Amino acid sequence: MAEIRVRSTGKVKLFESDNTSSISIESPSSLTADRTVTLPDANVTLASGTMLATDGDGSSLTGIPVLTGSTNNTVTTVTAANAISGETNLTFDGTDLTVSTGNVVIGTAGKGIDFSATAGTGTSELLDDYEEGTWSPTFVDNAGSTGTTSMTGSTGIYTKIGNIVEVQFYWYINSITAAPSGLYAGVGGFPFTSANDATPSGAAVWYSNVDVPYGTLMTTIEANKVQGIFYSQRDNANYGTISPSAIAASDTVYATITYRTPT
Fold first, then answer.
1. Distance (Å, whole) CA 159 – CA 156
2. How many helices (H) and strands (E) does the chain have?
3. Considering the entire predicted model, what is its pTM?
4. How many CB atoms lie under 10 A from the CB of residue 140?
5. In this model, does residue 1 exceed pLDDT 50?
6. Would 185 disulfide with which of 109, 151, 206, 244, CB 3.0-4.6 Å?
7. Poorest-confidence range of 9-23, 44-58, 137-151?
């Protein structure tokens, strides 16, 4: 093996053949003894701009690529073995982290964006969930039983932000072979179970053909449920209920309901 020895008292310079350019190997002022850089018994070719480093005891010499493709404030990533590059679409200016294209991906459930630095007295300031999608509303009773009903064309959509869910639905009865056998009629199939507490969530609705015994039709989802129950409001009196047997073909309900989930 060939060696380049750097004395503690000086420096080594390697000149090109025309003596116009050189490579300097200098010892730090704190060096207290001779140090040796050992070269392999083979040709070593370094790319332009490559730095050399040892493992600390001089027994190993490796090339460290210089950062490429970088401009001010770009965040660097490893792109291949011994290669790093600045990401032009990901920048940090010391205050703001900016993603100019693509998405921020939360890789672990229960993790998200923490707003605890803001003032507040809440029990949680972590935004850990967002979801949107579709669901299929069904004709159910208060126990969640469906009977035998055709509801072709009924549709639902939802958006979930944290533990708050908003559902919208079009509920249409094509035909009923056997109505649910429970006490109260309602809509089932909600995409998430409601929180297990005593606070029900209600919604105003638009409806057609439904046999409502008193005032305006309402939909309420109670604790720990995936279905809402139809109620009839009354002026200066207790609410009324709607029996599943009162629901008939062509009954139609449009509604938006917002409710909480456990998480």
1. 11
2. 0, 23
3. 0.73
4. 24
5. no
6. 244
7. 44-58
